[in-house]
Amino acid sequence: MSDLQLAGRAATTLVEIIRNIKPDQLDAPTPCAEYDVRKLINHLLFWGPPLEGAGRKETVRPPAAADTEVDLTGGDWAAELEAQVGRTAEAWSQPAAWEGTTRVVGPTELPATMIGGMVVCEMVAHGWDLAQATGQKPDWDDELLAFVHEEVSRTAEQGRQMGAYGPEVSVPASSSTLDRVLGIIGRDPDWRR
Q1: Domains and their CATH numbers in the chain
Q2: Predicted local distance difference test score (pLDDT) of residue 2
Q3: Neighbour count for residue 134 (Cβ, 10 Å)
Q4: DSSP one-letter code for 29
Q5: How far apart are CA 76 and CA 167, in angstroms?
Q6: What is the CB neighbour count within 10 angstroms for residue 125?
Q7: Model confidence, pTM
Q8: Could you tell me if residue 34 is left (phi over 0), alpha (psi between -120 and 50 degrees) or otherwise beta?
Q9: For 15-68, how does the pLDDT look when each residue is reduced to its tens digit (9 = 90+)?
Q10: 3-state DSSP of 142-174
Q11: d(Cα 140, Cα 97) in Å, to the nearest integer?
């Protein structure tokens, strides 16, 4: 699978999850401890434009200094989030997105492959968070999960230092690729609502 297909594959499953979230589930807890469903949706809406912009080599500022300072879940949040996920996937389906360097916010340029990998991993990880919180059973293909596993394995220490990953959760070596990904990023694969 080429890098150009990764975001699209991750986005397809994330969009299915978004479409199946019911209004009465917005206050449900998620495995991402600091977020309930509404706050996680807000987080995705908040960071979507900067991540899309990074794929286009454009700096797009989020609407506030932090996602806790703004609520973007008013109105038809599901349609807005679905559209944003689609735009982000489209931006990262272009060859130029993965070339050279780019930035999300601020002056620091990072390898585009690192940011692209982060985008794909975020779609899978937060998709899983939302699915667990709302009783869904999403399915990601093996190639996509192998890519995500490689990415999070490579960036785990940096992710923890930045606060993006929690402390590693021990999972058996015989666990599925998804469960091993979840353990690396600090999620308990057995988390239940």
Answers
A1: 3-184 (1.20.120.450)
A2: 65
A3: 19
A4: B
A5: 35
A6: 22
A7: 0.95
A8: alpha
A9: 999 999 999 999 999 998 889 999 999 999 999 999 999 999 999 999 999 999
A10: HHHHHHHHHHHHHHHHHHHHCCCCCCCCCCCCC
A11: 23
